[in-house]
Q: What sequence folds into this?
């Protein structure tokens, strides 16, 4: 089902109308306050699984992210591209793109579409940066 | 006497607000733990908590939640 996030700012106009309109066409619509920060921690992994950046202990992020991808790959008949796990304690998002991977942990009920969009944009920019450097050499 | 237009508008807006708040409450109450995997061809697979793969995914996710810790203070 299509998910629609309606971002609210102070003084937003017609935001509830937008939620209604999205629901009327069968989408799941949510209101998102513009200062909401659901992210608890995240890591970016390189092609060999090495940590390029992490919000805390890089070794644990490396090992635990590798374990998650390994379990996910074993669950199906091909490597996964995205993982989304929701628990009572929080939500885990993982994404592979262009040989890189990003893993993020958020509060419960984070908007999956926006979180994956941000992660994909980040990896795309990183991959493009690497490509341009490679082109200069 | 017909109500003033602004009163009608206010009633409509607060009605929408109540409805949206109710929708969010229902959504939160109904949401259960899940493990969803997406593949390159756009396919998605759900794994139940009590399945073998689902159980392993939840354990791996739990470790990541632990390493991430609590939300940083604003």
A:
């Amino acid at each position: 089902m299509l998910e629609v996030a309606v971002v609210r700012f102070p003084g937003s106009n017609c935001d509830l109308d937008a939620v209604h309109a999205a629901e009327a066409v069968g989408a799941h619509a949510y209101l998102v306050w513009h200062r909401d920060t659901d992210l608890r921690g995240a890591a970016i992994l390189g092609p060999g699984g090495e940590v390029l950046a992490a919000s805390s202990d890089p070794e644990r992020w490396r090992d635990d992210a590798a374990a998650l991808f390994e379990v996910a790959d074993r669950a199906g008949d091909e490597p996964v591209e995205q993982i989304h796990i929701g628990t009572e304690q929080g939500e885990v998002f993982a994404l592979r793109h262009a040989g890189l991977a990003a893993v993020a942990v958020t509060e419960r009920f984070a908007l999956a579409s926006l979180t994956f969009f941000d992660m994909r944009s980040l990896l795309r920019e990183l991959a493009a940066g690497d490509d341009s450097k490679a082109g200069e050499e | 006497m017909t109500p003033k237009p602004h009163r009608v508008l206010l009633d409509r807006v607060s009605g929408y607000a109540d409805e949206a708040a109710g929708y969010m409450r229902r959504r939160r109450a109904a949401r259960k733990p899940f493990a969803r995997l997406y593949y390159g061809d756009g396919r998605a697979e759900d794994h139940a908590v009590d399945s073998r793969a689902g159980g392993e995914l939840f354990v791996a996710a739990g470790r990541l939640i632990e390493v991430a810790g609590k939300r940083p203070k604003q």
Q: What stands out?
A: Residues 3-33 of chain A form one domain. The radius of gyration of chain A is 17 Å. Chain A has three helices and seven strands. Residues 131-137 of chain A have pLDDT under 50 and may be disordered.
